[in-house]
Design brief:
This protein is α+β, with helices and mostly antiparallel strands and 215 residues long. It contains 7 helices and 8 strands. The protein has helices at 5-10, 63-66, 88-97, 118-125, 150-161, 168-171, 202-205, and strands at residues 2-4, 22-28, 37-43, 47-54, 77-83, 132-140, 143-145, 179-182. Strands 1, 2, 3, 4, 5, 6, 7 and 8 form an 8-stranded antiparallel sheet that branches. Strand 3 (37-43) and strand 4 (47-54) form a beta hairpin. The chain is globular.
Amino acid sequence: MQVNIQELISETGIDEKIYPGKRMVKQYMQPGEFKSHCVVFDWRTELLRVELKAGLSGKSLDLKDLKKYPVSYQAPTFIELVAENDDKEEEEEGSKGKSGGGGKKPAMKKLEDSELSLSAFDKVTTGKVSEMAEIKKFVVMGKELAQEAYAQAFENFKTQLHQVKVMAMDIMKDVGNMIKKATPGGGLEAKGDESVKYKYDTEKTASLFGGMSPG
């Protein structure tokens, strides 16, 4: 499923562009302890990762702190997007024209928070930043969605982004049982390919999410 990256950003009310090498955090401040959360847009690898996180810093919390938040923020909720590479052929041609003297290929450096790769910078300055991307992976509260669920879940997610809070359980509205794999919350790892059925029911599940109500 294809999505427009910049339109997704605009849904949050953030009035700026995202591009390779950039990280942005949209904060959702809530009254009461351990209720505030954020959505992180992180495009510092080949993937653009959009993730719902507990707290306002955008950083992963220690397990002892994470457990204080409602379970909807304990299990991972994120989308991984692969941007279209419109200038792939041009890049390949450019790489062929460069002579490295037959030496070893330089090792890839890990991209730190403050760093912006030269290739990413070059794309930005030349305006070659893709607007479109393909959803590679969609996980909601530790449950990996099947591709058939992407369209509905993505629309639900966009609706959540421009509200005053993001409720992970509402991303699952009308998704039904289109779950590919489930991962337990609380920092636990999945054991194998755990296919599960998921039924959305606001009244029955609201108490699990810190007493929050939709909308």
